[in-house]
Design brief:
It is built from 19 helices and twelve strands. By secondary structure, the protein is an alpha/beta fold. Helix 2 crosses helix 14, helix 9 packs across helix 10 and helix 18 runs antiparallel to helix 19. It starts with 10 loop residues before the first helix and ends in an 11-residue tail after the last helix.
Protein backbone atom coordinates (compact mmCIF):
# COMPACT_ATOMS: atom_id res chain seq x y z
CA UNK A 1 0.00 0.00 0.00
CA UNK A 2 1.01 3.61 -0.41
CA UNK A 3 2.93 5.26 2.39
CA UNK A 4 0.76 8.36 2.24
CA UNK A 5 -1.01 9.50 5.40
CA UNK A 6 -4.38 9.00 3.73
CA UNK A 7 -3.75 5.27 3.56
CA UNK A 8 -2.79 4.77 7.17
CA UNK A 9 -4.51 1.49 7.80
CA UNK A 10 -5.86 1.77 11.27
CA UNK A 11 -8.20 3.63 13.50
CA UNK A 12 -5.61 4.37 16.13
CA UNK A 13 -2.88 5.54 13.77
CA UNK A 14 -5.43 8.07 12.61
CA UNK A 15 -6.21 8.83 16.25
CA UNK A 16 -2.53 9.75 16.53
CA UNK A 17 -2.94 12.04 13.53
CA UNK A 18 -5.96 13.60 15.20
CA UNK A 19 -3.84 14.27 18.27
CA UNK A 20 -1.17 15.78 16.08
CA UNK A 21 -3.74 18.05 14.46
CA UNK A 22 -5.00 19.11 17.86
CA UNK A 23 -1.44 19.92 18.86
CA UNK A 24 -0.86 22.04 15.78
CA UNK A 25 1.61 19.49 14.42
CA UNK A 26 -0.34 19.11 11.21
CA UNK A 27 -1.40 21.95 8.96
CA UNK A 28 -4.88 22.91 10.12
CA UNK A 29 -7.08 25.65 8.68
CA UNK A 30 -8.38 28.12 11.21
CA UNK A 31 -11.06 26.54 13.29
CA UNK A 32 -12.96 29.80 13.06
CA UNK A 33 -14.82 28.09 10.25
CA UNK A 34 -16.90 26.59 13.03
CA UNK A 35 -17.45 29.85 14.82
CA UNK A 36 -21.02 30.13 13.67
CA UNK A 37 -21.74 27.01 15.69
CA UNK A 38 -20.36 28.35 18.92
CA UNK A 39 -22.99 28.88 21.56
CA UNK A 40 -25.83 28.11 19.18
CA UNK A 41 -28.66 25.78 19.94
CA UNK A 42 -28.66 22.49 18.00
CA UNK A 43 -30.84 22.83 14.93
CA UNK A 44 -34.00 20.81 14.77
CA UNK A 45 -34.44 18.29 12.00
CA UNK A 46 -35.98 19.49 8.76
CA UNK A 47 -37.44 16.06 8.16
CA UNK A 48 -40.08 16.12 10.84
CA UNK A 49 -40.36 12.83 12.65
CA UNK A 50 -41.72 9.39 12.02
CA UNK A 51 -43.46 7.15 14.51
CA UNK A 52 -41.06 5.83 17.13
CA UNK A 53 -40.87 2.12 17.93
CA UNK A 54 -38.34 -0.48 19.03
CA UNK A 55 -37.36 -0.94 15.39
CA UNK A 56 -37.36 2.82 14.80
CA UNK A 57 -36.31 4.34 18.14
CA UNK A 58 -35.41 7.75 16.70
CA UNK A 59 -38.51 8.15 14.56
CA UNK A 60 -36.87 8.08 11.15
CA UNK A 61 -39.34 9.43 8.61
CA UNK A 62 -40.21 7.52 5.43
CA UNK A 63 -39.43 9.56 2.37
CA UNK A 64 -36.53 11.36 4.03
CA UNK A 65 -32.90 11.28 2.90
CA UNK A 66 -29.68 10.97 4.89
CA UNK A 67 -26.28 12.12 3.64
CA UNK A 68 -23.31 10.04 4.82
CA UNK A 69 -19.61 10.67 4.26
CA UNK A 70 -17.16 7.78 4.68
CA UNK A 71 -13.40 8.09 5.09
CA UNK A 72 -11.94 5.85 2.40
CA UNK A 73 -8.49 5.04 3.76
CA UNK A 74 -6.72 1.86 4.69
CA UNK A 75 -9.95 0.10 5.65
CA UNK A 76 -11.66 1.00 2.37
CA UNK A 77 -15.37 1.71 2.15
CA UNK A 78 -16.95 -1.57 1.07
CA UNK A 79 -17.93 -2.36 4.66
CA UNK A 80 -19.95 0.89 4.77
CA UNK A 81 -21.77 -0.07 1.57
CA UNK A 82 -22.77 -3.32 3.29
CA UNK A 83 -24.16 -1.30 6.19
CA UNK A 84 -26.22 0.71 3.73
CA UNK A 85 -27.80 -2.55 2.53
CA UNK A 86 -28.54 -3.58 6.12
CA UNK A 87 -30.12 -0.20 6.88
CA UNK A 88 -32.20 -0.15 3.70
CA UNK A 89 -33.66 -3.59 4.40
CA UNK A 90 -35.34 -2.13 7.48
CA UNK A 91 -35.96 1.36 6.06
CA UNK A 92 -36.56 0.88 2.32
CA UNK A 93 -38.26 4.27 1.96
CA UNK A 94 -35.30 6.27 3.34
CA UNK A 95 -32.72 7.36 0.78
CA UNK A 96 -29.08 6.90 1.82
CA UNK A 97 -26.75 9.18 -0.12
CA UNK A 98 -23.31 7.78 0.70
CA UNK A 99 -20.02 9.18 -0.59
CA UNK A 100 -16.37 8.46 0.18
CA UNK A 101 -13.39 10.77 0.49
CA UNK A 102 -9.98 11.19 2.12
CA UNK A 103 -10.46 14.94 2.56
CA UNK A 104 -12.81 15.08 5.52
CA UNK A 105 -11.78 18.43 6.98
CA UNK A 106 -11.28 20.10 3.62
CA UNK A 107 -14.70 19.09 2.32
CA UNK A 108 -16.85 18.88 5.45
CA UNK A 109 -15.60 21.48 7.92
CA UNK A 110 -16.67 24.52 5.86
CA UNK A 111 -20.25 23.21 5.87
CA UNK A 112 -20.51 22.53 9.61
CA UNK A 113 -22.01 25.92 10.44
CA UNK A 114 -24.48 25.97 7.56
CA UNK A 115 -25.71 22.76 5.88
CA UNK A 116 -23.51 19.83 6.94
CA UNK A 117 -23.81 16.20 6.01
CA UNK A 118 -25.91 14.14 8.42
CA UNK A 119 -23.24 11.59 9.37
CA UNK A 120 -19.48 12.01 8.95
CA UNK A 121 -16.69 9.51 9.49
CA UNK A 122 -14.15 11.92 10.92
CA UNK A 123 -10.86 10.18 10.27
CA UNK A 124 -7.60 10.24 8.32
CA UNK A 125 -4.82 12.80 8.07
CA UNK A 126 -7.33 15.49 7.02
CA UNK A 127 -9.37 15.19 10.21
CA UNK A 128 -11.49 17.78 11.99
CA UNK A 129 -10.26 18.42 15.52
CA UNK A 130 -12.58 16.62 17.90
CA UNK A 131 -12.09 18.91 20.90
CA UNK A 132 -12.90 21.98 18.84
CA UNK A 133 -16.00 20.36 17.36
CA UNK A 134 -17.24 19.59 20.85
CA UNK A 135 -16.28 22.91 22.44
CA UNK A 136 -17.97 24.90 19.68
CA UNK A 137 -21.15 22.82 19.79
CA UNK A 138 -20.65 21.64 16.23
CA UNK A 139 -21.48 17.98 16.87
CA UNK A 140 -24.40 16.32 18.56
CA UNK A 141 -24.22 14.38 21.86
CA UNK A 142 -25.22 10.79 21.11
CA UNK A 143 -26.09 9.44 24.55
CA UNK A 144 -29.55 8.50 23.27
CA UNK A 145 -27.88 6.18 20.76
CA UNK A 146 -26.24 4.27 23.61
CA UNK A 147 -29.58 3.71 25.34
CA UNK A 148 -31.42 2.73 22.16
CA UNK A 149 -32.14 -0.95 21.48
CA UNK A 150 -29.35 -2.80 19.68
CA UNK A 151 -30.17 -3.40 16.00
CA UNK A 152 -30.16 -7.19 15.99
CA UNK A 153 -29.27 -8.35 19.50
CA UNK A 154 -30.65 -8.15 23.01
CA UNK A 155 -30.07 -5.13 25.19
CA UNK A 156 -29.00 -1.64 24.26
CA UNK A 157 -26.42 -0.38 21.80
CA UNK A 158 -24.09 0.29 24.74
CA UNK A 159 -24.46 -3.33 25.86
CA UNK A 160 -23.25 -4.52 22.45
CA UNK A 161 -19.98 -2.56 22.47
CA UNK A 162 -16.50 -3.70 23.45
CA UNK A 163 -14.97 -2.25 26.63
CA UNK A 164 -13.54 1.23 26.18
CA UNK A 165 -15.64 2.17 23.16
CA UNK A 166 -17.99 4.39 25.14
CA UNK A 167 -15.26 6.07 27.18
CA UNK A 168 -13.15 6.61 24.05
CA UNK A 169 -16.03 8.57 22.52
CA UNK A 170 -16.93 10.53 25.64
CA UNK A 171 -15.83 14.04 26.54
CA UNK A 172 -17.09 16.42 29.22
CA UNK A 173 -19.42 13.69 30.44
CA UNK A 174 -21.24 13.27 27.11
CA UNK A 175 -20.89 10.73 24.32
CA UNK A 176 -20.04 12.38 21.00
CA UNK A 177 -17.98 10.03 18.85
CA UNK A 178 -19.02 6.55 17.69
CA UNK A 179 -15.84 4.59 17.04
CA UNK A 180 -16.65 1.63 14.84
CA UNK A 181 -13.30 -0.17 14.67
CA UNK A 182 -11.18 -1.72 17.39
CA UNK A 183 -7.40 -1.97 17.34
CA UNK A 184 -5.34 -4.42 19.35
CA UNK A 185 -1.59 -3.94 19.68
CA UNK A 186 1.13 -6.46 20.42
CA UNK A 187 4.02 -8.47 18.98
CA UNK A 188 3.40 -10.10 15.60
CA UNK A 189 5.10 -13.26 14.34
CA UNK A 190 4.77 -15.73 11.49
CA UNK A 191 3.14 -18.80 13.02
CA UNK A 192 4.06 -20.91 9.99
CA UNK A 193 7.76 -20.15 10.49
CA UNK A 194 7.56 -20.85 14.21
CA UNK A 195 5.92 -24.22 13.56
CA UNK A 196 8.58 -25.09 10.99
CA UNK A 197 11.42 -24.20 13.35
CA UNK A 198 9.78 -25.68 16.45
CA UNK A 199 9.82 -22.32 18.22
CA UNK A 200 7.31 -21.44 20.93
CA UNK A 201 6.09 -17.85 20.85
CA UNK A 202 7.29 -16.21 24.09
CA UNK A 203 4.95 -14.68 26.63
CA UNK A 204 7.64 -13.31 28.97
CA UNK A 205 10.82 -11.34 28.47
CA UNK A 206 12.88 -14.24 29.81
CA UNK A 207 11.39 -16.53 27.15
CA UNK A 208 12.13 -13.98 24.43
CA UNK A 209 15.77 -13.55 25.43
CA UNK A 210 16.15 -17.34 25.56
CA UNK A 211 14.71 -17.68 22.05
CA UNK A 212 16.63 -14.76 20.53
CA UNK A 213 19.94 -16.66 19.95
CA UNK A 214 18.07 -19.39 18.05
CA UNK A 215 16.47 -16.76 15.83
CA UNK A 216 19.83 -15.08 15.16
CA UNK A 217 21.33 -18.48 14.29
CA UNK A 218 18.86 -18.64 11.39
CA UNK A 219 20.15 -15.33 10.02
CA UNK A 220 17.18 -13.29 11.26
CA UNK A 221 16.99 -10.34 13.61
CA UNK A 222 14.76 -11.17 16.59
CA UNK A 223 12.96 -7.80 16.37
CA UNK A 224 12.19 -4.88 14.06
CA UNK A 225 10.22 -1.68 14.61
CA UNK A 226 9.40 1.68 13.06
CA UNK A 227 12.40 3.84 13.94
CA UNK A 228 11.09 6.96 12.20
CA UNK A 229 7.79 7.73 13.94
CA UNK A 230 8.24 7.97 17.69
CA UNK A 231 4.71 6.98 18.60
CA UNK A 232 5.36 3.45 17.31
CA UNK A 233 7.97 2.50 19.92
CA UNK A 234 6.07 4.56 22.50
CA UNK A 235 3.13 2.17 22.19
CA UNK A 236 5.34 -0.72 23.25
CA UNK A 237 7.09 1.17 26.04
CA UNK A 238 3.82 2.40 27.55
CA UNK A 239 2.28 -1.06 27.33
CA UNK A 240 5.25 -2.47 29.22
CA UNK A 241 4.96 0.26 31.87
CA UNK A 242 1.26 -0.50 32.43
CA UNK A 243 1.86 -4.24 32.68
CA UNK A 244 4.76 -3.93 35.11
CA UNK A 245 3.66 -0.99 37.24
CA UNK A 246 -0.12 -1.32 36.97
CA UNK A 247 -3.07 0.86 36.04
CA UNK A 248 -2.65 3.32 38.91
CA UNK A 249 0.83 4.18 37.69
CA UNK A 250 -0.66 5.13 34.32
CA UNK A 251 -3.37 7.23 35.97
CA UNK A 252 -0.73 9.04 38.03
CA UNK A 253 1.36 9.70 34.91
CA UNK A 254 -1.66 11.11 33.09
CA UNK A 255 -2.57 13.29 36.06
CA UNK A 256 0.98 14.70 36.30
CA UNK A 257 1.39 13.40 39.82
CA UNK A 258 4.73 14.24 41.38
CA UNK A 259 7.38 11.62 40.55
CA UNK A 260 4.80 9.48 38.75
CA UNK A 261 7.39 8.36 36.19
CA UNK A 262 9.56 7.02 39.02
CA UNK A 263 6.93 4.63 40.41
CA UNK A 264 7.89 1.09 41.30
CA UNK A 265 7.92 -1.16 38.26
CA UNK A 266 8.57 1.45 35.57
CA UNK A 267 12.34 0.95 35.43
CA UNK A 268 11.80 -2.81 35.39
CA UNK A 269 9.37 -2.35 32.49
CA UNK A 270 11.87 -0.45 30.36
CA UNK A 271 15.09 -2.29 31.09
CA UNK A 272 14.30 -5.22 28.74
CA UNK A 273 13.90 -2.75 25.87
CA UNK A 274 17.28 -1.28 26.74
CA UNK A 275 18.73 -4.80 26.79
CA UNK A 276 17.11 -5.68 23.45
CA UNK A 277 18.91 -2.73 21.87
CA UNK A 278 22.25 -3.27 23.64
CA UNK A 279 22.30 -6.97 22.73
CA UNK A 280 21.85 -6.00 19.06
CA UNK A 281 18.57 -7.89 18.69
CA UNK A 282 17.04 -5.16 16.49
CA UNK A 283 17.23 -5.24 12.71
CA UNK A 284 19.71 -2.45 11.77
CA UNK A 285 18.51 0.55 9.80
CA UNK A 286 16.23 3.52 10.31
CA UNK A 287 13.08 2.02 8.79
CA UNK A 288 9.62 3.60 8.82
CA UNK A 289 6.36 1.76 9.43
CA UNK A 290 5.85 0.12 6.04
CA UNK A 291 9.57 -0.52 5.52
CA UNK A 292 9.86 -2.30 8.87
CA UNK A 293 6.65 -4.24 8.20
CA UNK A 294 7.93 -5.30 4.79
CA UNK A 295 11.27 -6.35 6.27
CA UNK A 296 9.36 -8.54 8.70
CA UNK A 297 7.27 -10.04 5.90
CA UNK A 298 10.49 -10.69 3.98
CA UNK A 299 11.77 -12.82 6.85
CA UNK A 300 14.46 -10.40 8.01
CA UNK A 301 13.06 -10.28 11.56
CA UNK A 302 10.98 -12.61 13.70
CA UNK A 303 8.88 -10.10 15.63
CA UNK A 304 7.39 -6.66 15.00
CA UNK A 305 5.17 -4.59 17.28
CA UNK A 306 2.24 -2.83 15.65
CA UNK A 307 -1.56 -2.76 15.69
CA UNK A 308 -4.17 -4.83 13.90
CA UNK A 309 -4.25 -2.61 10.83
CA UNK A 310 -1.09 -4.51 9.81
CA UNK A 311 -2.66 -7.12 7.53
CA UNK A 312 -4.90 -4.68 5.72
CA UNK A 313 -2.06 -2.22 5.23
CA UNK A 314 0.36 -4.82 3.85
CA UNK A 315 -2.17 -7.02 2.04
CA UNK A 316 -0.55 -6.71 -1.37
CA UNK A 317 2.89 -7.92 -0.24
CA UNK A 318 2.15 -10.73 2.23
CA UNK A 319 3.96 -13.88 1.02
CA UNK A 320 1.96 -17.07 0.40
CA UNK A 321 1.74 -19.22 3.51
CA UNK A 322 2.69 -16.39 5.85
CA UNK A 323 0.52 -16.68 9.00
CA UNK A 324 0.27 -13.26 10.61
CA UNK A 325 -0.30 -13.96 14.30
CA UNK A 326 -0.59 -11.48 17.14
CA UNK A 327 0.73 -12.18 20.63
CA UNK A 328 0.61 -9.96 23.68
CA UNK A 329 3.46 -7.70 24.69
CA UNK A 330 5.93 -9.63 26.81
CA UNK A 331 5.86 -9.20 30.56
CA UNK A 332 7.58 -10.35 33.72
CA UNK A 333 6.26 -13.10 35.96
CA UNK A 334 5.62 -10.64 38.80
CA UNK A 335 4.09 -7.80 36.77
CA UNK A 336 1.07 -6.17 38.38
CA UNK A 337 -1.12 -6.27 35.24
CA UNK A 338 0.44 -8.85 32.93
CA UNK A 339 -2.90 -9.92 31.43
CA UNK A 340 -4.13 -6.44 30.54
CA UNK A 341 -4.31 -5.92 26.76
CA UNK A 342 -3.44 -2.80 24.80
CA UNK A 343 -6.54 -2.09 22.72
CA UNK A 344 -8.82 0.83 21.87
CA UNK A 345 -11.58 1.92 19.55
CA UNK A 346 -11.26 4.34 16.64
CA UNK A 347 -12.60 5.40 13.23
CA UNK A 348 -15.07 7.83 14.74
CA UNK A 349 -18.43 8.91 13.33
CA UNK A 350 -19.96 12.24 14.34
CA UNK A 351 -23.39 13.77 13.77
CA UNK A 352 -23.24 17.54 13.16
CA UNK A 353 -25.50 19.61 15.40
CA UNK A 354 -26.96 21.30 12.33
CA UNK A 355 -27.50 18.06 10.41
CA UNK A 356 -30.93 18.12 8.76
CA UNK A 357 -31.67 14.45 9.44
CA UNK A 358 -30.15 13.47 12.78
CA UNK A 359 -32.76 10.76 13.25
CA UNK A 360 -31.64 8.79 10.21
CA UNK A 361 -27.98 9.43 11.05
CA UNK A 362 -28.41 7.82 14.45
CA UNK A 363 -30.41 4.97 12.97
CA UNK A 364 -27.66 4.31 10.45
CA UNK A 365 -25.18 4.18 13.31
CA UNK A 366 -27.35 1.49 14.91
CA UNK A 367 -27.04 -0.49 11.68
CA UNK A 368 -23.27 0.02 11.49
CA UNK A 369 -22.93 -1.26 15.07
CA UNK A 370 -25.20 -4.26 14.43
CA UNK A 371 -23.94 -7.83 14.68
CA UNK A 372 -24.44 -8.26 10.94
CA UNK A 373 -22.68 -5.00 10.10
CA UNK A 374 -19.75 -5.58 12.43
CA UNK A 375 -19.27 -9.12 11.12
CA UNK A 376 -19.07 -7.76 7.58
CA UNK A 377 -16.61 -5.12 8.76
CA UNK A 378 -14.33 -7.78 10.25
CA UNK A 379 -14.63 -10.01 7.20
CA UNK A 380 -13.79 -7.24 4.74
CA UNK A 381 -11.11 -5.37 6.69
CA UNK A 382 -9.56 -8.23 8.72
CA UNK A 383 -9.86 -5.89 11.71
CA UNK A 384 -12.13 -6.12 14.72
CA UNK A 385 -15.17 -3.89 14.93
CA UNK A 386 -16.06 -2.22 18.22
CA UNK A 387 -19.16 -4.43 18.49
CA UNK A 388 -18.69 -7.56 20.59
CA UNK A 389 -18.13 -10.79 18.66
CA UNK A 390 -17.37 -9.19 15.31
CA UNK A 391 -14.43 -11.49 14.59
CA UNK A 392 -15.86 -14.72 15.98
CA UNK A 393 -16.70 -16.28 12.62
CA UNK A 394 -13.88 -14.90 10.45
CA UNK A 395 -11.34 -17.53 9.41
CA UNK A 396 -8.16 -15.49 9.42
CA UNK A 397 -5.05 -16.02 11.56
CA UNK A 398 -4.42 -12.32 12.12
CA UNK A 399 -7.96 -11.50 13.18
CA UNK A 400 -8.42 -14.74 15.13
CA UNK A 401 -5.28 -14.14 17.16
CA UNK A 402 -6.36 -10.57 17.97
CA UNK A 403 -9.80 -11.83 18.91
CA UNK A 404 -8.28 -14.49 21.18
CA UNK A 405 -6.00 -11.92 22.79
CA UNK A 406 -8.97 -9.72 23.62
CA UNK A 407 -10.97 -12.61 25.05
CA UNK A 408 -8.04 -13.76 27.17
CA UNK A 409 -7.42 -10.33 28.66
CA UNK A 410 -8.95 -8.59 31.65
CA UNK A 411 -11.63 -5.91 31.66
CA UNK A 412 -8.93 -3.23 32.00
CA UNK A 413 -7.50 -2.10 28.68
CA UNK A 414 -4.09 -0.46 28.57
CA UNK A 415 -4.45 3.24 27.85
CA UNK A 416 -2.54 6.44 28.50
CA UNK A 417 -4.22 9.83 28.17
CA UNK A 418 -1.31 12.28 28.45
CA UNK A 419 -0.71 12.18 24.67
CA UNK A 420 -4.30 13.45 24.30
CA UNK A 421 -4.03 15.91 27.17
CA UNK A 422 -0.69 17.62 26.51
CA UNK A 423 0.75 18.09 23.04
CA UNK A 424 4.27 19.08 24.11
CA UNK A 425 4.54 16.15 26.50
CA UNK A 426 3.26 13.82 23.81
CA UNK A 427 5.92 15.01 21.37
CA UNK A 428 8.67 14.71 23.96
CA UNK A 429 7.60 11.14 24.74
CA UNK A 430 7.87 10.29 21.05
CA UNK A 431 11.35 11.80 20.81
CA UNK A 432 12.58 10.03 23.93
CA UNK A 433 11.09 6.72 22.79
CA UNK A 434 13.08 7.01 19.58
CA UNK A 435 16.23 7.80 21.56
CA UNK A 436 15.82 4.80 23.87
CA UNK A 437 15.24 2.43 20.97
CA UNK A 438 18.24 3.88 19.13
CA UNK A 439 20.49 3.12 22.10
CA UNK A 440 21.15 6.78 22.86
CA UNK A 441 19.32 6.68 26.20
CA UNK A 442 19.27 4.18 29.03
CA UNK A 443 15.99 3.20 30.64
CA UNK A 444 16.84 5.34 33.66
CA UNK A 445 17.68 8.34 31.51
CA UNK A 446 14.36 7.93 29.66
CA UNK A 447 12.51 7.99 32.98
CA UNK A 448 14.41 11.01 34.27
CA UNK A 449 13.77 13.00 31.10
CA UNK A 450 10.08 12.07 30.98
CA UNK A 451 9.69 13.12 34.61
CA UNK A 452 11.37 16.45 33.87
CA UNK A 453 9.09 17.02 30.88
CA UNK A 454 6.01 16.16 32.96
CA UNK A 455 7.15 18.51 35.73
CA UNK A 456 7.51 21.32 33.22
CA UNK A 457 3.91 20.86 32.07
CA UNK A 458 2.66 20.56 35.66
CA UNK A 459 4.29 23.87 36.63
CA UNK A 460 3.09 25.79 33.58
CA UNK A 461 0.00 27.69 34.69
CA UNK A 462 -0.84 28.60 31.09
CA UNK A 463 -1.59 24.95 30.30
CA UNK A 464 -5.07 23.76 31.21
CA UNK A 465 -4.75 20.63 33.30
CA UNK A 466 -6.79 17.51 32.61
CA UNK A 467 -7.77 14.81 35.10
CA UNK A 468 -8.20 11.12 34.56
CA UNK A 469 -10.15 9.11 37.12
CA UNK A 470 -10.19 5.60 35.62
Amino acid sequence: MSVTPENLGDLSRRTLLQRAAAAGLLATPAMGLLSACAGSEPEKSDNGGGAKSKDNPFGVKDGSAVKVVIFNGGLGDQWAKEDKVIFSAKHPNVTVNMSSTQKIKTEEQPKMATQPSDLIMNSGADIMDRATLINEGAIEPLDDLLTAPAWDSEGTVADSLLPGTVSDGTQNGKFYVVNVAFTVWGNWYNAALFKKEGWQAPTTWDEFFALAPKIKAKGMAPYVHDAVHGYYPRWALLASIWKAAGKQAAIDIDNLKENAWKADGILKALEPWEKLVKDKLLLPGKLDHTQSQQAWLDGKAAFIQVGTWLKNEMASTIPPGFELTLSDYWSHADDKAAKDVFASSGEGFVVPSKAPNKEAAKELLRAILSKAGSAKFAELTKSLASTKGSGDNVQDSALSSANALMKGGTSDLISFRFPDFYADLAKESENLSEELMAGRLTAQQFIDKMQAAADKVAKDSSIKKQTRTA
